[in-house]
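re the bet — no i am not wrong, look at it urself. input seq straight from the record:
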Amino acid sequence: MSCESLSNVTCKILAPLSQAFSACVYERWSYGGVVFLTVPPVLSLALLLVYCEEVYYILRKADSKDLRNSLLWILGTFPGLMIIGTVAIFIPRGVVYLSFIYGIFVAYAVYKYYYLIVVFAGGTKSFVDKSAHNDVPLNNIPCCCLVCLPKIKNSERVTNTAKWLILQNVIFTPFFGALGVLLKADSKLYSLEGISASVYLSVLNGAATLVCMYGFKMMHQMTKSIHGMEEVHAIKGKTMCIQLLMVITGFEGMIFNVLAQLDVFPCTPPLNFLSRRRAIYNYAVVIQVFFLGILARYHFRRKDDIQRQAILNDSLTITPGENNAVFTAVDAFVQKKRSYSGTASVASAQPSSENSSDQSNANTVAIRNDASQTYQGTSSSV
C-alpha cells in the first residue's frame, strides 16, 4: 500500500515496516525526509567517536577500578542512547521495545553516578563523616516552594534515605518500561478513545523521575558541604548532566504523551500510526542526547578527576586516623589548603602537649604523602 493511498485511512494500530516507512518519508518530505533520516546516524557516529577517545584516555590515565568503571558507563550511556534511538527511527514498529532498552541504560547510569559521588568522598562512612557538620535544606526541587521544610544534619540515615530516593527510579524505570512493552504487545498501550495507557505510565514514570531528582539534589547539598569536593571534582556540573538526562528520558515522555492526547500531533503520513507520539519523542531524545553527551564529556572526562583520584586504588587503603576513611583527592586538597594557612602558626612556640600533637599530625600527613608517591611511582613504572 503506497503512501498516497494511506492519506485517507485512519490511524493504523501498527507502525509501517522499516522500508515502507523510509520510502513514505522520502515521498512525503522529499529532501527534507533525507535530512530527517540522515541527521541521527551522523550524530550517533560523531558521539561514538568522541566516546572512543574518552575510553582511550580513561583507560590510560585512571588507576582506580571503581572510578574507571563508573566513568566509562556514565559516558557510554549517551552514545548508547543515540544508537538505540537511531535504530528506532528507522524501525518505528520497534520504538517502544527499543525505548525500554535505553531506559535500562539510563537507570543503571543513575545508579553509577550515585556510586561515583561516594567514590569521590572515599566511601559511605567517609561521606557521612565529612558532610555531617553542615545543614541540608529539604526545600529542594521539586519541593522548592515549601519553605516550611526544615534543615537537617546529615547522618547515615539521611544518606540512606537520599540513596533510596535515587535508586527507586532505577527500579521503577525498567518496571514501567516492561509494562509498556507488554501493553504494546497486546495492542493496549495506545487508544483512539479515552486516555491511553501510555499517558498513565508516563505520568508515573515522570513522578519517579522527580523523586529521583529530589534525592540527587539532597546528595548535591551534602556533597557541596564537603570542603574541597566542588573545587576538585566539579560535582555541580556532573549532577546537572545526570539531571538533564533524567528529564529528557523520564519527564519529557509525559509531556509528549499529554500533547498527543490533545491531538497536537496529527495522524498524517508518514506518521499515521498510533505510536507516532513515541516516534516523535524518540527523535527529540536522539538530538538532545547528542548535545548533552558533548556537555558530559566536558564535566566527566576531567584530568583533575582522573589523576587526583589515582591514590584511591582498590588494593590500597590509607587510614588517616580517627575516621578510618580512605585518603582521597579531597583530603589532599584540604591538607594542602591547611598547610598554606597554618605554616606560620605551627612554627610559633606552643606548649609541649600541643607540639607533640602537631608533630603527630605532621607525621600522619607525611605518611600519607609517602604512600601516595610510592603508589604513583609504582603505577607509572608499570
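see?? The CA atoms of residues 141 and 260 lie 27 Å apart. told u. also The longest strand covers residues 135-137. so pay up
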